[in-house]
Amino acid sequence: MLAGELMLKNGAETYRVEDTVTRIARGYHISHVNVFVTPTAIITTMQGDEEVMDHTELLRVTERTIDLHKVSLVNDVSRQITSNPISPETVKQKLQDIDQSTPTFPYWIHISAAAVASGCFTIMFNGTWPDFLPAFIVGAIGYAVFQKGQQLVNVKFFSELLASFVIGIVAVFLITVGAGQHLDKIIIGSVMPLVPGLAITNAVRDLMAGHLLSGLSRGAEALLTAAAIGSGIAVVITFL
């Protein structure tokens, strides 16, 4: 359950979480195991070979982020269990170390990466080089607002709405003062760090794997994010 929680809250697909939890259970010779995963919960039922042990556990996952490095590390642990079984205590310690000890990038690196990505996306969407610096600035400000909104409100929709609104205002201001040439390219490039690419990908993969509930849930989450981004930009374009 700890392995499944780590994978689910760090961006893994639901069918991958189910497969990993099942493999870990079978690695400890629990042949009868059923796992049901949604984007917010993991339900596991296990039964021993003698059919006298029947254990069901429900675990809610309320916080989700994107850290595919942790997903990869948990996958490595599950492979170790299936190839060369190790004690459950050792596995639990490994998983706790992954959860607590895996370094996270500092705040300024997040902002810098979003800024560089915004500028590069602007060029990729046929913007000109004079648009790169404005997109760099707008992307950094927008992502900083998004991060701060997450800390204050902890409602992703409102954080994305506010961030896209600020992106629109700053982009219009820079174009007005003569920095940059193409408003649309700057805005499109700057909102790309907010676009739910992983959520859309996981939704499609879950649907293709037959996990209709998880696929539709993730798809709805991605559409809600897209609506927040579009609404924030639309307000600015309409009134300014």
- The amount of beta strand, in percent, is 5-15%
**Largest sheet, described in full?**
3 strands, antiparallel
Shape: elongated
Runs in which pLDDT lies below 50 for 5 or more consecutive residues are none
Structural class: mainly alpha
Mean pLDDT: 89
- What is the terminal separation in angstroms? 51 Å
> Could you tell me the number of beta strands?
3
H/E order of the elements? HHEEEHHHHHHHH
The number of helical segments is: 10
Strand line-up in the sheet with most strands: 1-2-3
Measured as a percent range, the helix fraction is 55-70%
Radius of gyration: 22 Å
Task: Give a concise summary.
With 240 residues, the chain is mainly alpha-helical. It is 67% helix and 9% strand. It folds into two domains: 2-101, no CATH class; 107-239, no CATH class.
Describe the protein's architecture and organization.
This protein has 240 residues and is mostly helical. Helices cover 67% and strands 9% of the residues. The protein contains ten helices and three strands, in the order ααβββαααααααα. The protein has helices at residues 2-9, 14-27, 68-83, 88-101, 107-124, 132-152, 156-176, 183-191, 197-208, 212-239, and strands spanning 32-38, 41-47, 54-60. A three-stranded antiparallel β-sheet has the order 1-2-3. The chain is elongated, with a radius of gyration of 22 Å. The model has no long low-confidence stretch (mean pLDDT 89).
